[in-house]
Write a structure and sequence with these properties.
By secondary structure, the chain is mostly helical. It has 8 helices and no strands.
Length: 217
C-alpha cells in the first residue's frame, strides 16, 4: 500500500472513535441517572451490564440512531432532484453532473457495475436503500425499547402498563422521534445554506474559498 492504514482511513477512524467514546459516556451517565430513578422509587440499583439491557438504554440509543439514518436517507434522495444555488451540498442548478451519468463497466469499476443486470439496478440505489434499512431497524428497536421502558417504569410505580398498540398510538413514542427528526433536518439545512456564503479551507464539505457565492462546485 502506498499509504499506511491511518493515512487511508483516518476520517472513518476519527468519526467512529468519537462515536464509541460518546456511546460509552452515554451508557455510564445513563446508568447513573437510571439508578437514581430506581432509588427514588425504592428499588435496588442495578449493574452496568443489567442497565444495557433495559428499555431505557435501548430507547435512548436507537431513538437517536433512527433519526440519523432517516435524515441521511431522505437527504441522499432529495439531492438527486432538488438544487440549492451556491451550496456545496448541491449539484449545479442547470445541467447534469458526473453522478447523473449512466455507469460504464471498466476494470476498476465495482463488481455490481461489471456484473450488470438487476444487480447493477439495485446497486445504483444501494446507498439510500441501506440508510432506509438501517432506519427501519433502528425505528423498530426504538419502539421496542420505548415500550419496554414504559413497562419497567409502570412496574416500579406499581401501575398497570398500556398495551403495545395503545402505547404506539399515544404521544410518548412519537414525541421521542419528532424531537430528534426536527433537529436532524435543522442541521442539514444549516450546512446547505451556510455553505453558500461561508468557507472552510481544505474541507470537501466547503466550496473553494475564492468561489463566488452563487456558484456550485
Amino acid at each position: 500500500m502506498k499509504y499506511p492504514f491511518l493515512r487511508r482511513n483516518g476520517l472513518s477512524v476519527f468519526v467512529l472513535g468519537f462515536f464509541l467514546v460518546f456511546w460509552a459516556a452515554q451508557a455510564l451517565t445513563g446508568w447513573a441517572v437510571y439508578n437514581e430513578m430506581r432509588t427514588e422509587e425504592g428499588a435496588a440499583a442495578i449493574g452496568l451490564l443489567g442497565y444495557l439491557t433495559t428499555g431505557d438504554f435501548i430507547e435512548v440509543t436507537f431513538e437517536n440512531w433512527e433519526s440519523e439514518f432517516f435524515q441521511m436517507g431522505i437527504y441522499v434522495l432529495a439531492t438527486v432532484w432538488l438544487r440549492q444555488q451556491g451550496s456545496s451540498e448541491s449539484k449545479p442548478v442547470e445541467g447534469d453532473s458526473d453522478v447523473d451519468k449512466q455507469p460504464v463497466a471498466h476494470p476498476g469499476a465495482p463488481w455490481p457495475v461489471r456484473r450488470g443486470g438487476w444487480i447493477l439496478g439495485l446497486y445504483k440505489y444501494s446507498l439510500s436503500l441501506a440508510f432506509f434499512a438501517l432506519f427501519l431497524i433502528s425505528f423498530s428497536l426504538h419502539a421496542f425499547g420505548s415500550y419496554r421502558h414504559h413497562v419497567e417504569e409502570a412496574a416500579l410505580k406499581d401501575q398497570p402498563a398500556e398495551g403495545f398498540a395503545a402505547f404506539m398510538a399515544g404521544p410518548t413514542f412519537w414525541f421521542e422521534s419528532f424531537q430528534n427528526w426536527q433537529s436532524e433536518f435543522l442541521a442539514i439545512g444549516a450546512i446547505v445554506i451556510l455553505s453558500i456564503w461561508l468557507r472552510q479551507h481544505g474541507s470537501p464539505e466547503s466550496k473553494p474559498v475564492d468561489m463566488a457565492h452563487d456558484e456550485n462546485p
